């Protein structure tokens, strides 16, 4: 049985750990609120960008010859995995990597070769440990990404695609739903899906009428050529923000559970301490009584 000193040492250790987990939970909670605000501010911009592209695409005579729209036989698939720079976030990093490896098995079964790119230190270290060749790796900004970070990622992906180093680009990331729910999402990024430029099928007549007929200067094809890279940057930025919010939500939940477990451990060790102390007191009383009986005998 552990001594009283050992039990007290364990209680102090767990209390110190609880202080850390509680602090991390509070920090993640505060940062999550800001991350949610950034996503809410981003979504109207992304929707408006898609509306502009739909309008320009419908006015263009042809958009399928644009570099980011060209379709070819798929031999190499580029995979972009969004992970975190740090751990202590529950299943956040593990679930997105498992989904990426599942996607790898599916594509290799179809006879496709994979080209890996990764955002986040955790994903990069995992791929290097598995001895995967990584075409590009970004880290240091995933907790609070900026638009310029999305531009750097989008530029590299567009370069890989236009140079025909990959024939398809897929992103794998955690999509933020709520503080308790984050869903792993696999989305085709390049070539830009045609349904994005064709607009929503369920678009109502009022929305179509509001779009009206416009005179484009310069040509719609040239406008679309300039909008496509911006759309690509916007989609990457959206994925970065979703992944950042998911990381903070997962960390907040994990640290809350850790603090709860710490409280349970402290209660358990406190009960053990009381029992051990009571046993020690009882033993001392018995020794005193035995000594007194020996003297009077």
Please specify the SSE layout and strand pairing.
Blueprint: H1 4-59, E1 76-82, H2 92-109, E2 113-119, H3 121-129, E3 134-138, H4 147-162, E4 168-178, E5 181-190, H5 194-198, H6 205-211, H7 220-296
Parallel strand pairs: 1-2, 1-4, 2-3
Antiparallel strand pairs: 4-5
Helix pairs in contact: 1-7, 4-7
What does this structure look like?
Helix content is 63%, strand content 13%. Helix 2 links the parallel strand 1 and strand 2. The longest helix is centred in the C-terminal third of the chain and has 77 residues. Helix 1 runs antiparallel to helix 7 and helix 4 crosses helix 7. A five-stranded mixed β-sheet has the order 3-2-1-4-5, with helices on both faces. It has 297 residues and is an alpha/beta fold.
What are the key terms here?
297 residues; alpha/beta; Helix Hairpins; Pyruvate Kinase, Chain: A, domain 1; 2 domains; 5-stranded mixed beta sheet; 63% helix
N to C succession of SSEs? HEHEHEHEEHHH
Strands ordered across the widest β-sheet: 3-2-1-4-5
Query: What is the number of beta strands?
Result: 5
CATH fold topology of the largest domain: Pyruvate Kinase, Chain: A, domain 1
Number of contiguous helices: 7
CATH superfamily of the largest domain: ATP synthase, F1 complex, gamma subunit
Helix content: 55-70%
What composes the largest sheet?
5 strands, mixed
Could you tell me how far the N terminus lies from the C terminus, measured between alpha carbons in angstroms? 34 Å
Classification by helices and strands: alpha/beta
Strand content: 5-15%
**CATH class of the largest domain, please?**
Alpha Beta
Mean pLDDT: 83
Cα Rg: 29 Å
Note poorly predicted spans: 206-212
| CATH structural architecture of the largest domain | 3-Layer(aba) Sandwich
């Amino acid at each position: 049985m552990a001594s009283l000193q050992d039990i007290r040492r364990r209680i102090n250790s767990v209390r110190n750990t609880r202080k850390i987990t509680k602090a991390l939970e509070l920090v993640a909670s505060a940062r999550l609120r800001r991350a949610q605000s950034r996503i809410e501010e981003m979504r109207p911009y992304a929707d408006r960008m898609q509306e502009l592209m739909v309008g320009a695409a419908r006015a263009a005579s042809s958009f399928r010859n644009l570099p980011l729209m060209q379709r070819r036989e798929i031999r190499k698939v580029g995979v972009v995995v969004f992970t975190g720079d740090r751990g202590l976030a529950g299943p956040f990093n593990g679930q997105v990597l498992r989904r990426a490896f599942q996607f790898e098995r599916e594509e290799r079964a179809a006879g496709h070769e994979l080209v890996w790119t990764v955002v986040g230190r955790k994903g990069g270290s995992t791929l290097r440990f598995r001895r995967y060749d990584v075409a590009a790796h970004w880290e240091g900004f995933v907790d609070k990404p900026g638009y310029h970070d999305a531009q750097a990622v989008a530029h590299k992906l567009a370069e890989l695609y236009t140079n025909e180093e990959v024939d398809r680009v897929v992103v794998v990331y955690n999509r933020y739903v709520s503080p308790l729910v984050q869903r792993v999402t696999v989305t085709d990024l390049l070539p830009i899906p045609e349904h994005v430029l064709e607009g929503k099928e369920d678009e109502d007549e009022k929305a179509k009428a509001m779009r009206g007929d416009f005179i484009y200067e310069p040509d719609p094809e040239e406008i679309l050529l300039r909008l496509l890279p911006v759309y690509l940057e916007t989609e990457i930025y959206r994925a970065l923000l979703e992944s950042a919010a998911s990381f903070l939500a997962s960390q907040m939940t994990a640290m809350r559970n850790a603090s709860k477990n710490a409280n349970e451990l402290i209660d358990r060790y406190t009960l053990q301490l009381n029992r051990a102390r009571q046993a020690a007191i009882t033993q001392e009383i018995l020794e005193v009584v035995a000594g007194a009986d020996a003297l009077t005998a």
